[in-house]
Amino acid sequence: MQIIGFILLGFIIWYGFKDRSDAVISAFDAHAMVMVLVGSCSAVLVSSSHTTVWRTLLCLRELVPGLALFGRTTRAMEAEREQLSALWRDGKRSQAVDLAGNSRFPAVKQMLELILNRATDASSSKTFTELRHEEISRWQPAIHNWEMLAKLGPAFGMVGTITGMIQLFRNMSSENLNIGAAMSLALLATLYGVAFGAGVAGPIGTYLNGLLDDRLGLLERCEKSVNEIVSRGER
Fold first, then answer.
1. What's the average model confidence in pLDDT over 70-99?
2. How far apart are CA 186 and CA 192, in angstroms?
3. By the 8 A CB rule, do 190 and 158 touch?
4. SS3 103
5. How far is it, in rounded angstroms, from Cα 229 to Cα 213?
6. pLDDT in the model for residue 34
7. Smallest Cα–Cα separation from 115: which of 233, 208, 8?
8. Cβ atoms 153, 40 nearer than 8 A
9. Residue 233 has pLDDT above 80, yes or no
10. DSSP conformation class of 59
11. How many helices (DSSP H) and strands (DSSP E) are in the chain?
12. Are 184 and 25 in contact (CB under 8 A)?
């Protein structure tokens, strides 16, 4: 990933100084768009592993209705937690065991194991702390990439602006008075960078952080449910 990222960074520098024939400034400039998007993505590739890059891309499905898996999984885990707690409190132990045994969620299985072993608060805290750390280590790097993209967008917009201004001054000092393309790159690169960072990557990072907070909150509620059930059984 790092090699690909460095290659793309070199490409962006070369592409920024590439001569263009269009002389009209319009609302859309593919040259400026490439500078911002490819430049930002190249920096992410330099700082990420293959797995992190893949998970960063997978985060996009959370924005698509019907494909959002992370939030749906959290809600399913919450439903099983509530059902397990209710069954155990109502004395339906065999049904609770069957529910946890058939569950596809490690947190629910851990709940049953801790309850059956009458785990102490310290043991329960250790187990769910490990589960929370697993979730953080799995998804936080990908979420961090989106937060980094929110900062990189404006930065690479400035790269486009600088290269555009250099082209502008170069064209003004020669017989080639085609300054429209250079002005377009200089102005629109900054606009695209700010729009991408503040309007796309930033909100995505905030949304994904909210999903991760929901998952961590669920694991905390699982821990509290175990402690309540165990303490009630000891009375």
1. 90
2. 11
3. yes
4. coil
5. 24
6. 83
7. 233
8. yes
9. no
10. G
11. 9, 0
12. yes
Confidence label for 173 from pLDDT (cuts 50, 70 and 90) = low
* Mean pLDDT score, 157-171: 77
Longest dimension (CA), the chain: 92
Phi, psi of 23 (to 5 degrees): -115, 5
* pLDDT at residue 179, rounded to an integer: 63
Sequence-distant contacts of 16-22: CB under 8 A, at least 24 apart: 16/159, 16/160, 16/162, 16/163, 16/164, 16/185, 17/163, 17/166, 17/167, 19/167, 20/181, 20/185, 21/178, 21/181, 22/180, 22/181, 22/184
Q: Using the structure block, give the residue that is written with the tokens 């429209």.
A: 180
Distances (CA, A) of 94 to 88, 90, 101, 216, 235: 9, 11, 10, 28, 21
Angle at 124 between CA 122 and CA 126, to 5 degrees: 70
Q: Write down the pTM of the prediction.
A: 0.81
Report the C-alpha gap between 112 and 96 in whole angstroms.
Answer: 8
Measured between alpha carbons, how far is 183 from 89 in angstroms, rounded to an integer?
70
Residue with tokens 């937060």: 147
pLDDT per position as a tens digit, 188-226: 888 888 999 999 999 999 999 999 999 999 999 999 999
Burial of 56 (0-12, 13-18, 19+ CB in 10 A): buried
Check whether 154 has a pLDDT greater than 80. yes
